[in-house]
Specification:
The protein is mainly beta. The chain is about 15% helix and about 40% strand. InterPro entries: Porin_dom_sf.
Length: about 475
């Protein structure tokens, strides 16, 4: 066997390197316990592009799984005081112990998450049956004395999820969340709510046909009629319609490479968020090939595959005066905390298996980051970023240290339809007499009969020039 492999290796004279993607494939593994609307339309990809290795302060991630049982994993996240001040007092970090039925497909799982400071712990379970495409999930508090106070259950369960994680209400009370979903390759629908009072936190529906995708999501307000089905019977039609308009988001996306993993992806999306904002998003992931100029590589290496991501997001308010089309309670509550218009353009370039460069330019800040990854066992990632905060008018810095031994390693190859790149784009043909004259430093010798030839003078008009 060894002789056969050696013989095959001797026959390979020149090779192209295909490094693994910089990030292990363990992101988004809890998406079956969340709204599909919040994950699709390139939302998750843009979030990772704009945030990973680019946030201020210090951050650290530990992600481990035993080799004897890869179904079990533990994740710990730590943040410095800068991040805690920006995200809240309970954001110093958290640890999660997770068990999933299959080490490859994270469709069904159960995990326990504990916060570092005063957040207690949460138990979350998710079950999804691929045969029927139906699933259910639930999240409830454990080891939190305040959450079990009967006087606070009503306030806790009537608070909307807000960011889709469904962990904690605005008053600091722990929320109980449960949901049902149907997810197939072309359609997804589901509902999330608070089972103790029958309140609805989110309804979503997403469909895909070919390269097109469309979806809607309804997130009722905490004090609106839509959040409590029992209040719908006595609600006025005008108020109900106003709340429904103010709580509904619509999105449409175009992705021609959908369903063809490993060859890059192009996605552009347009979203109308709750009658307040219009969001235009764009994400392009490319696997490109360039010449290998690394003196440390073998002589037989002629090229290396690079991974490039480019993302753009533009958020525009629909009205400048802060008023909204709906006069419902839900819309009035959202109007108190409007999202400012913004523009963010981000890009990342993975040079090889070890180095990744990122840059983010937006209306709030400009940041650049450089990350190094050592593919040991376990692997570790060290990244540093620096930028300028436009609002604070001061520099900002960040440092990231990740250690992990878990997550699938993925590769992508350069598309064969785009082989012509770099020097290969330049075609060659046999040299003409004028080419030889140019090399010798002499101009083209024009004969007397061609002194006024429009073709020689470059005066030939195209066919389209005659049209007004």
């Amino acid at each position: 066997m060894g002789q056969i492999l050696s013989a095959e290796q001797e026959q390979v004279s020149e090779v192209v390197l295909v490094p693994p993607l910089f990030e292990r494939d363990h992101k988004g593994r809890s998406r079956m316990a969340k709204s599909s609307y919040d994950f699709l339309f390139c939302k998750a990809q843009l979030k990772w592009l704009f945030n990973d290795y680019l946030r201020p302060g210090g951050r650290s991630l530990l992600h481990f799984s035993p080799a004897e049982d890869p179904r079990m994993s533990i994740t710990a996240r730590l943040r410095t005081d800068i991040e805690r001040e920006r995200l809240g007092q309970n954001s110093a970090g958290a640890a999660t112990i997770r068990f999933q039925a299959s080490p490859v497909d994270p469709l069904s799982f159960i995990d326990v998450k504990a916060a570092v400071q005063g957040g207690g712990a949460r138990l979350r379970g998710c079950y999804f049956n691929p045969a029927s495409c139906f699933g259910a999930f639930v999240e409830l508090p454990i080891a939190d004395a305040e959450a079990y106070d009967s006087r606070r259950w009503q306030a806790a369960t009537s608070t909307p999820l807000g960011n889709g994680d469904g962990a904690r209400g605005a008053a600091g009370s722990v929320d109980v969340c449960a949901g049902l979903r149907y997810s197939s390759p072309v359609f997804s629908a589901g509902v999330m709510g608070s089972p103790l009072d029958g309140g609805i936190n989110a309804l979503w529906m997403v469909g895909r046909h070919g390269a097109m995708m469309a979806g809607l999501q309804v997130r009722p307000g905490a004090s609106g009629c839509l959040s409590n089905p029992r209040a719908l019977s006595g609600a006025e039609p005008g108020r109900l319609w106003g709340e429904l308009r103010g709580a509904t988001s619509l999105a449409v996306a175009y992705s021609p490479a959908a369903g063809t993993p490993g060859r890059g992806a192009f996605t552009t999306a347009l979203e109308l968020q709750e009658q307040q904002r219009l969001v235009l998003s764009f994400m392009h992931h490319m696997a490109v090939q360039r010449l290998c100029k690394n003196p440390f590589e073998d002589e037989q290496v002629v090229g290396v595959t690079n991974y490039i991501n480019i993302g753009l997001q533009v958020v525009t308010q629909l009205r400048n005066d802060g008023s909204f089309p709906s006069d419902g309670v839900a819309s009035k509550q959202r109007a108190r905390d409007p999202v400012e218009p913004s523009l963010r353009l981000g890009a990342s370039w993975q040079v090889n298996k070890n180095w990744l460069a990122k840059v983010l330019v937006g209306t709030d800040a400009a940041v650049a980051a450089l990350a190094f990854k050592a593919w040991w066992q376990p692997s570790f990632t060290l990244a540093a970023n620096a930028g300028w905060d436009y609002k604070k008018r001061s520099p900002r810095f960040g440092l990231v240290l990740n250690v992990e031994n878990y997550g699938n390693i993925r590769y992508e190859r350069f598309s064969g339809a785009q082989r012509l790149q770099g020097s290969a784009l330049v075609q060659r043909h046999a040299a003409l007499p004028e080419d030889l004259a140019n090399k010798a430093g002499r101009g083209l010798l024009v004969q007397k009969k061609d002194l006024d030839n429009p073709a020689i003078l470059g005066q030939t008009q195209p066919e389209s020039a005659k049209y007004l």
